[in-house]
Write a structure and sequence with these properties.
Elements (H helix, E strand, L loop, with lengths): L1 H17 L7 E7 L2 E8 L4 E4 L2 E6 H10 L3 E3 L1
Antiparallel strand pairs: 1-2, 1-5, 2-3, 3-4
Length: 75
């Protein structure tokens, strides 16, 4: 019985550590005179997402494009 509990504990430990979520690189808040503030987040694949929707564009390219278009983004 002790052996069974030990095995279950080991399997549970591996399950907890192997299910760690990779959140990517974080988020930044952007705003412009034409829009309300919104968050742009870096997904684990390196793409930017807005409102949870993956844009399919690399995060750095997306944020720099927003800034070039007149938006203000800060980390």
């Amino acid at each position: 019985m002790k052996k069974l509990l030990f095995i279950i504990a080991i399997i549970s430990g591996f399950t907890v550590f192997s299910c760690k979520k990779d959140d990517g690189g974080g988020c930044t808040t952007c705003s412009s005179p034409e829009t309300t503030s919104f968050q742009v987040c870096e997904e684990s694949d390196g793409n930017a997402s807005v409102n949870g929707q993956n844009t399919g564009t690399p995060y750095d390219v997306y944020v720099s494009g927003l800034v070039e278009a007149g938006a203000s983004c800060n980390n």
